Amino acid sequence: MSKQFQFKLVLLGESAVGKSSLVLRFVKDQFDDYRESTIGAAFLTQTVTLDDQTTVKFEIWDTAGQERYKSLAPMYYRNANCAVVVYDITQSASLEKARSWVRELQRQADPSIVIALCGNKTDLNARRQVSQEEAKKYADEEGLMWGETSAKTGEGVSDIFTAIAKKLPLTAPPSRPGANRASASGTQAGVDLNRNPVSTEQTDGCNC
User: How far are the Cα atoms of 31, 87, 143 from residue 16, in angstroms, in the given order?
Assistant: First the structure.
């Protein structure tokens, strides 16, 4: 019997690193050179097929990167199963901001949260300021997943979300219909959609 799981995923990072473009590429396989800044957060969904019997549905919260919205972030990463912290490989400062988001997640998010560090804009490699070695070393030290992407070309985008899906606890007991079952560590387990049907309708209004 096929298994379908559902997890909450949040994107964090400085403004203009390409979080919304990354999500748009992942969800709709589209790219827009001119996207307005996200206001508050945008919600989308996408499903990853791991094998013939296992699919993972991500409920994705794409948060705004501007400093004035930072206080809203805990509303979105609270109870999140996974987080993608995005930086721009052409901006060293964006990696420093990513480090601060990682520290905040480590302090305040669920201890079992899966965190992936994502270097975006590999299509601008000629302007690179953050080396792969530096980012990978930091990710290894903090126990993070790491990868590089280009929302513009699509390079690496599906890879990083698929890798996250594979790392999530797909052996967790499914939730009862209408209830969220917590694991022993207090984190919300993946929801088995076969037992807890939800709408698969995708949100089209993305304030990216």
Answer: 14, 9, 25
pLDDT of 131-165, one tens digit each?
999 999 999 999 999 999 999 999 999 999 999 99
pTM of the model: 0.80
Label residue 182 exposed, middle or buried (CB < 10 Å: 0-12, 13-18, 19+): middle
CA–CA dist 4, 159 (Å, integer): 19
Domains in the chain: ranges and CATH? 3-192 (3.40.50.300)
SS percent in the chain: helix, strand, coil, step 5: 30, 25, 45
The residue length of the chain stands at 208
Q: Which of 38, 102, 91 is nearest to 69 (CA)?
A: 38
Dihedral angle computed from the Cα positions of residues 105, 198, 180 and 203, in that order, rounded to the nearest 10 degrees: 20
Q: How far apart are CA 12 and CA 15, in angstroms?
A: 9
Q: Quote the CA–CA distance of 13 and 171 in Å, as a whole number.
A: 30
The DSSP bridge partners found for residue 82 are: 9, 114
For residue 65 the two structure tokens come to 């990167």
What value does the mean pLDDT take over residues 116-137? 98
Q: How many CB atoms lie within 10 A of CB 51?
A: 9
